[in-house]
Amino acid sequence: MSDHISVYQVAMIQMASEFLNRSANLDKAEAKIREAAQCGAKLICLPESFDLGYDGTQIPDMMAAAQDENGETLRRMSGLARELKVHILAPTFLRTPSGVENRAFLLDDEGILLGGYSKTHPVGDERKYLVRGREYPVFDTKLGKLGITICYDACFPETSRILTLKGAQVMLVPAAWRGNFYFKEWWDLNLACRALDNLMYVAAVNMTGPTGEQYFAGKSQLCSPIGEVLCTCGVKEENILLGEIDLDCVRKEREFNTVLEDRHPEDYFLLSRP
């Protein structure tokens, strides 16, 4: 796409979602999307399963509430994207003929569904019940080449490297990342490393609030192509985090830093073995 916007604002909507209350969660998301658009955001990202909330101990209940692409969640997000002239990342549980996927959809500023990414590394009970993704699409948009991973996927450097090799300049990471144990620190380190490894922006948007006896880590953030945290949220706050993406920074960093050119894939055969 030739008419890229080189510099633009991305909004990461860190929100608490009420478990299985799609109507209330969509109302809250819509209000925050409208506010982010008024602040000038061109790309607005929502957390993993923002419309249903997330409880890893109740995956079958989430699956029962899953919708297909014609469901209320995507219809409403498409209408907002078209009305507000913004791109929206809308993650939800998707019902398909072969089962339910944890999928993040990308809508352009005309409300057109560009496609989506299904979580390739399910975690916990997701492994028992969900159909995992096996593809790593990169979307050529007005806002550059965008890739997506979901939550636990960020723990695997292979995911972001595949996106980079396919041209991604920005990786979007919607998540329902828990805050227990050392997980908050793990979140920070993973995101910075994925950005620096691949000389790309990483825009990560996480849930906040409690989930059963646990809580989400918050800390939505934008990392630069050198792994610098440009902006971040706290753990417990609901917030619209705004950050600037400058695609020229990706180009300049990849010209200066030759880490991608200096790879030796002929030596990496072990990485593709089970």
Q: Approximately how much beta-strand content do the residues carry?
A: 25-35%
Tally the helices.
7
Largest sheet: 6 strands, mixed
Count every beta strand, where a strand is a DSSP E run of 2 or more residues. Answer: 14
Overall spatial form: globular
Distance between the termini: 37 Å
Features of the shown structure:
274 residues; alpha/beta; 7 helices; 14 strands; 27% helix; 28% strand
Question: How would you explain this protein's 3D organization?
Answer:
By secondary structure, the protein is α/β, with parallel strands linked by helices. The protein has seven helices and 14 strands. The protein has helices at residues 22-38, 59-64, 72-84, 126-129, 157-165, 183-198, 247-256; strands at 7-14, 41-45, 87-96, 99-107, 113-118, 138-141, 144-148, 170-175, 201-206, 210-211, 214-215, 221-223, 229-232, 239-246. The strands form three sheets. It has a six-stranded mixed sheet. A six-stranded mixed sheet has the order 6-7-8-9-12-13, covered by helices on one side. A hairpin with a 5-residue loop joins strand 12 (221-223) and strand 13. Helix 1 packs parallel to helix 3 and helix 5 (157-165) packs parallel to helix 6 (183-198). It starts with 6 loop residues before the first strand and ends in an 18-residue tail after the last helix. The mean pLDDT is 97.
